[in-house]
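Q: Acyl-CoA reductase-like NAD-dependent aldehyde dehydrogenase, please. Structure only.
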Amino acid sequence: MPTTEPDRAPGRRGARFAVVDPATGETFDEAPDQRPDELDAVVDRSHRAWHDWRADRAARTTALRGAADAVETAGDELARLLTREQGKPLTESYAEIARTAARLRYFADLAPRTRRITDGRPVHSEVRWRPLGPVAAIVPWNFPLQLAAAKFAPALAAGNTVVLKPSPFTPLATRLLGSVLATALPEDVLTVVTGREPLGARLASHPRIRHVTFTGSVPTGRAVARAAGASLARVTLELGGNDAAVLLDDSDVDRIADRLFWAAFRNCGQVCMAVKRVYAPARLHAEVVEALAQRAKSVAVGPGLDPDTRLGPVNNAPQLARVEQVTEQALADGARAAAGGQRLDGPGYFFAPTILTDVPPDSPVVTEEQFGPVLPVLPYRSLDEAIDAANGTGFGLGGSVWGTDLDRAEAVAERLECGTAWINHHAELSLAQPFAGIKNSGVGVAGGPWGLYGNLRPFVVHRPREE
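A: Structure for Acyl-CoA reductase-like NAD-dependent aldehyde dehydrogenase:
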């Protein structure tokens, strides 16, 4: 069975670290703090399990389908624990569990295709596919289970084994997920390890890890790539975004305001591909600001376990400090808060949903990724100006264009420098589509068949047509 790795080292039994409920700011549980040098045994067991796991695709399909069933059965327990440690509303946690199960089912039925090469030579040449070996999956705190599944589901379906490390801010639901999956998968096929740094760095640089897949910040992603480079392991990096929404001059503000607001504020704005900047035509700018500000002022903010809550807390104290810092900097530079603008009084890591106007275009809240419930709305005079501004950061994950004339909107979307462009919506993904960024937003491709092939290597067999 896959395991949540126990404390094994002599003299370290019981070493643990605190896990904080972001709705209260108080510790509510602990998780094992595993030593980096304990990874050797974990990865060795993962490597041994790989030999049997890769050999039987039919067995993998059955196991992954069973794993999806097990996740759904444990949905209530997983969702409540996820909300407790991450902060998101319980309805969003249930959606994350559903997405985790759906991804397992999707990849359970996906298989690589053998391709025959015909090039006029007197040989039969076939391109077949082989798994890579043990995979390291390093997952952030904003979608701990969904992003874990985005990494381990294609890796397992391809015939690899996985060592999964969650963020120290959200280790508990992932540990529980590992125990749930243990009822369906063979031993050591998936192992969850928890701990603070340098555990992740040691995992990324381990010589028996053949693929490192990471989601997180640009600086950490660069460090992961350097660590993986020591053993020439493959890397897949999703490093966040600063997605722009460009509203055209034929936009129906009343019609799109709800969709635009939630594209920015779902999961308290802690979404890599959330809308993080809005560019509105000058004549519509005030109307857009007012529509978004009304929603920011009226949305129910509170603990995720409260059924009335629509917007939970920021996940952790360092991220809350980051949100405060970029907001205060913008206000000091002349921006105005049409809604919010400050941390909420009381316990927990709550920040008022914030709409900023009159923001200098070079303010960090515009040029960098704020990753919280703060949204700048900037006016533009010409469409070329808006597109240049949308493309003018080091990120290139996603973007969107909003307008009534869909053909025109699509033509504008073609000019955005990003991996995915949406029209009249944002941050919606199919399990079957590729997901990748450009520039500082990442390396490699996740999602759909592309995600499966990212966990495989080609193997070519040449056979004479006749002797």
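A: Brief note, in case it's useful. Confidence is low (pLDDT under 50) at residues 6-12.
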